[in-house]
Amino acid sequence: MSSTVTNSELAMKTVARPRAALQLRGSDAAKFLQGQTTCDLLALAQQPAGTMISGAHCTPKGRMIFDFSAFFNPDAEDELVLLTAPDLAATALASLKKYAVFFKVEISDVSAQWQQLLVFAANREPLAAELGAVQALGEQIFTVTLPAGAALPTQLAGAAPADDSWAHNQLLAAGIAELCAATSDLFIPQMLNYDHRGFISFKKGCYTGQEIIARAHYRGAVKRRLALLQASGELPATVQPGAELRDSDGRAVGTIAAVGAAQLLAAVTEPALALSQFGVDQQLFDATASALVAAAE
Question: How far is CA 50 from the centre of its chain?
Answer without folding.
Answer: 19
